[in-house]
Amino acid sequence: MDYDMLRITHHASTGQKRRFNISMSRVRTLGFVLAIVVLIAGLSACDQLLQILSDDEMTGAEVPQFTDLSGDISVGVVLPLSGRLVSSFGTPMDRGLQLAVEEINNGQRGDARIRFVVEDDMSTVDGAVSAFEKFIHQDGLTVILGPANSAMTREAFPIAQQNSVLAVSPTSAARGLSALGDYVFRVSLATDVLIPNGVDATHAKLGYERAATMYDKADPFSVDSENALQEALAANEVDVLETVTFEGGDSDFSEQLTRILQVNPQIVFVSSAPPDKSEILIQAREIGIPTTIPIVLRTLTASDVEVAGSAAEGAMTFTEWANASDKPRNQVFVQKYKAKYKIEPTNYAARAYGALYVLAEAIANAGSADASEIRDALANITDLDTIFGGFSFNEVGDAVYDPIVLVVENGELKIFE
Question: Which residue from 128, 143, 191, 399 lies 20 to 30 Å from 202 (Cα-Cα)?
């Protein structure tokens, strides 16, 4: 990791806006630059532009300015940098945060900068709790980004609330977690938003009447997703013919998938943590569930699709962000991420990137690094221009913006229309 002004501490206990609005003069300048680029051998035109354009131009919006602040604004970051969730959550979130903090810090006209203090939660609830405790009681931090998943957030958010420390989780989505207190917020759309919207959208177009469900009984997010799913299917008068469970880390899903195949559903819904999704898709196709029966998984990413290969064809996901979204700010983010890391961003990278911009906007609006003042500024964010589109918080601190349904077609995640 190469954060601007970054200190990394690995914890080893058992326990965590200018819009992209190019004026005519800038268009003429860009044209001149392009003419020069043609004469220069080497990189592609896209890569040349990424190097030539200034940081604020490539950000796609004016960076929030910390005009009333000076020096470091310390933010604790809790990430799974080792363990089971490192490749799905940790590395993409790390990259999204790195890109965002570079843009924000490089775009400042004053001397204030965000400085990350990072803790590895080792993909465990205990690790996330320990990271929060260390940030608060040893490091004296009052602003934290994290944790990553719902199980960790459920245990760590109360610690922040009890100590009047602001915590913003970029990626947890189980219902009710932001309602734990007024100092805790989430950037992901909660399951009671994403799932009813997704069921309504897919049912209206596909007209399915028979479904089967499968979920990780040991994962709070998956359990909550299943509950929300059962409610949404009942509201649409869809019969659930079979519900099967597994535990995260299982490698053989053949028994559960065979039971699903035998009841002949028209659609299958799977709620699981990221590491299991590709293997479930692969084994589902191997035991005979055809691609004509859609398998719907929460937050299916391009990397999941790549791993699953042809088995992912026709799979769907209810999500809050997509590479395919044509929102201008999102497309600039995707372009910059690909230029920096040479790969497509995942949903987890996007949510981490977006979360830091939301937090930075609140810090700028508050004109303060005080947790209570940033909390009040976050609560007042309304229709903020982000990579997700217009972004707001509701009365309990959950994010409000438009959800998305995606479908895999020819190996790519595309907007379901």
Answer: 399
Tokens for 207, please give them.
């007209």
* 396: Cβ contacts below 8 Å, ≥ 6 apart: 178, 179
- 195-198 long-range contacts (CB < 8 A, ≥24 apart) are 195/225, 195/228, 195/229, 195/232, 195/298, 195/318, 196/228, 196/231, 196/232, 196/235, 197/318, 197/403, 197/405, 198/232, 198/296, 198/316, 198/318, 198/403, 198/405
pTM above 0.90, yes or no: no
| Whether 155 contacts 129, CB under 8 Å | yes
Q: 73 - beta bridge partners? A: 114
Alpha-carbon dihedral sign for residues 135, 148, 250, 243: positive
* Distance, CA of 389 to CA of 369 (rounded, Å): 26
| Residues in contact with 334: Cβ distance below 8 Å, sequence separation at least 6, in sequence order | 323, 344, 345
CA 53 to CA 33: how far, in whole Å?
A: 9
CB atoms inside a 10 Å sphere around CB 38: 9
Q: 371 Cβ partners below 8 Å, 6+ apart?
A: 142, 143, 164, 165, 166, 183
Overall size of the chain counted in residues: 417
At residue 252, the pLDDT reads 96
Helix (H, G, I), strand (E, B) or coil at 413: strand
Q: Per residue in 283-314, pLDDT tens?
A: 999 999 999 999 999 889 888 999 999 999 99
DSSP string, 199-214: HHHHHHHH---EEEEE
Kindly tell me the sign of the dihedral angle through the C-alpha atoms of 285, 287, 292, 297.
negative
- DSSP state, residue 75: E
pLDDT in tens, 326-368: 999 999 999 999 999 999 999 999 999 999 999 999 999 999 9
What's residue 48's pLDDT?
39
DSSP state of 309: G
> How far is residue 371 CA from its own chain's centroid?
23
Owner of token pair 């909550």: 224
Parts of the chain with a pLDDT under 50: 1-60
What is the structure's pLDDT at 62?
80
pLDDT on residue 275:
80
Of residues 244, 294, 223, the one with CA closest to residue 265: 294
Cα–Cα distance, 39 to 47 (Å, whole number): 14
Burial class (CB in 10 A: 0-12, 13-18, 19+), 40: exposed
